[in-house]
Design a protein that fits this description.
The structure holds two protein chains of two kinds. Chain A is an all-beta fold. Chain A is built from no helices and twelve strands. Chain B has no helices and ten strands. Classes of the chains: A mainly beta, B mainly beta.
Chain lengths: 114, 114
Amino acid sequence: GDSVTQMEGPVTLSEEAFLTINCTYTATGYPSLFWYVQYPGEGLQLLLKATKADDKGSNKGFEATYRKETTSFHLEKGSVQVSDSAVYFCALWGLTGGGNKLTFGTGTQLKVEL
Amino acid sequence: GAGVSQSPSNKVTEKGKDVELRCDPISGHTALYWYRQSLGQGLEFLIYFQGNSAPDKSGLPSDRFSAERTGGSVSTLTIQRTQQEDSAVYLCASSLGTPNQPQHFGDGTRLSIL
């Protein structure tokens, strides 16, 4: 079945540092890929998405490129801020199992310090 | 406009009791999903409703779990004879239902089984 693997956290960075959160996936066919973010005390929010190979999703300074050859969708940001502290979930939308659903990774907690 | 609304936000109950969790999706969203987020784990898909089609129940962990969606809008997730391992945050999401549409999440119900 479909699966998503994320790097384990927590990831602790200083403000203005470069961020990479790795995400790889296993899926049949051509899934769509997403990054969701959960800020402290809030619900999940869609951060960005990519629906086909080589697409780049971007939002709020974050980027991720759909790499089919490496089955990856790594999240990057050039300069993080304290306000980026949150849990980040990589997810894929697939059609396995006879239904439509998001398959999530376990989440990566990011802590940004001054 | 209003987002996905879930109630209650917190629920504490004794082992063996039944609980009902409610989700009010975004108006016009035909797809509705329930997920479970357990401590230290990712989001686990539970059930998916799409319009008038039969729901995809493939993620329900046992027959103690059931869900219904009345009138294509509000959904109720019921857990019978609760166990301590049912303690988790239960998240509801809705979307427009067409492939690759982003899911909009509620803030969740934090369920604690004593």
